Amino acid sequence: xxxxxxxxxxxxxxxxxxxxxxxxxxxxxxxxxxxxxxxxxxxxxxxxxxxxxxxxxxxxxxxxxxxxxxxxxxxxxxxxxxxxxxxxxxxxxxxxxxxxxxxxxxxxxxxxxxxxxxxxxxxxxxxxxxxxxxxxxxxxxxxxxxxxxxxxxxxxxxxxxxxxxxxxxxxxxxxxxxxxxxxxxxxxxxxxxxxxxxxxxxxxxxxxxxxxxxxxxxxxxxxxxxxxxxxxxxxxxxxxxxxxxxxxxxxxxxxxxxxxxxxxxxxxxxxxxxxxxxxxxxxxxxxxxxxxxxxxxxxxxxxxxxxxxxxxxxxxxxxxxxxxxxxxxxxxxxxxxxxxxxxxxxxxxxxxxxxxxxxxxxxxxxxxxxxxxxxxxxxxxxxxxxxxxxxxxxxxxxxxxxxxxxxxxxxxxxxxxxxxxxxxxxxxxxxxxxxxxxxxxxxxxxxxxxxxxxxxxxxxxxxxxxxxxxxxxxxxxxxxxxxxxxxxxxxxxxxxxxxxxxxxxxxxxxxxxxxxxxxxxxxxxxxxxxxxxxxxxxxxxxxxxxxxxxxxxxxxxxxxxxxxxxxxxxxxxxxxxxxxxxxxxxxxxxxxxxxxxxxxxxxxxxxxxxxxxxxxxxxxxxxxxxxxxxxxxxxxxxxxxxxxxxxxxxxxxxxxxxxxxxxxxxxxxxxxxx
Length: 674
Description:
The chain is mainly beta.
């Protein structure tokens, strides 16, 4: 809803207000008790009110489960005011932006309420008495001996968050001459931290040191206020004792558990120069502020009200300590097993991106325009996720090194911090023709280079605002590499052609024109190189940091001088296995293989539609025809398995489905408009 008010011909005000929301509910028709009984799990903590299923993760296989019923409600109310003042060659705009944001989330840690069970060889492949204990992760699964288990019990599973965000700006469009225009301005944004009506949030201060009963304790858990203690999980408190649990006031931080940034200034400048009537050159620079939305509040959600424990398997009396049907300790409140999932830097800064561009545009005549452009950006202080309890790479092994971990009373202390960076450069050439003489088309070719250190140690999609979990918090640059699923080269063209039948040859003969004319041919042509992929290897712990146990499969080594692409590349042999090697354990470093060093299959897809229209009157029309996605049925393969040292590594078992690249699909359509 908007209202414009003209004070004078040179002073105009616009006020706008809007509301949008997304409400989602996920459920399924089996109760936790039913599925636990069918799987054979016994003696688990109280089941959640909603649905949940266990999560089995076997190296080299698709994980199962790991989900639960949930309700999510995200709403935004927005109020904007823009005042425009025109004076001579200047058009100055002032404005303000207020947003009230709310978010409701339910069933925290649903993926662990019935347990997570990991089979990656970190324990079961260990050499005991000269032989691997089990050796194969799938064999360990069949025997019911996991390498690691995780279980959550929750008192208050929900959060009801809210925040108020503010912004203001000033911008001047200055028409210096008839051929030169300069735009410049400054924007300020303020994004206070979300708070929770249910007080179900927790943070962790790693630099806080206290003495409890003569014992020096590093770190402290912080909750909003005294009322937050009402939902404190006793298992959580017992497992981390003697770690203090303080209110925000006692810890000397805001009740929101974060010091919000107040100096987010974003300048911008743009230049447009009309060289002549056919040529225009444009350029610009701007700084963008990323407003943290749900990541920090969802990170803090449900920690002190939950007991989220990680149990690593081992031998006890020559037998595995954890095995089915109850692969957990008899006493769940074990010291040093609590996973703080997760904290956020109390001084977390809003990430920002510097963006710049340069464009050359030329009118080629015949309604056709050429555009050549360069776009670049650099992101800094991007969000990344770290394990604050990670030990330094070592040669003594994790069992020894963890004794000197920063926070030995915890299994893992996840935290969302600043520290990532990114660099993007792209050159684009495009050609576009306006609709004339029955035809229009647009085609563009882009060559892009997109690198980031904030995707995670094993990115499988674009990172969220929280960033990915890093390999080594002491050297985030280890994860600097090609951004997953960015395409190095991409050509995309669309066109529409009104076939000349009945438009030229039969012009003047209305009956024949209706019978034969009215045909439209349209299409999309897509050619692009494949996505960047990252290899992992189960069980290996070359750094001695317990990475496969605490986090997941790390990256392998690469073999110098060996091509990643096999001599004959097929769907059964897409990646050269000889290009990778399993690094030895406890050698004081992580695997050499970088992020995004493999390339998946590209895409070639031509999609066409042929439609005919018949007009009976000015307001009545029938349209019918056929549409074909991937008309020539080109086989566009999906990404290969990327888990090295497994039988399926480098093999492709599926095809693409997005962007009309799947198997050819033909559909007939008809529509009557009146």
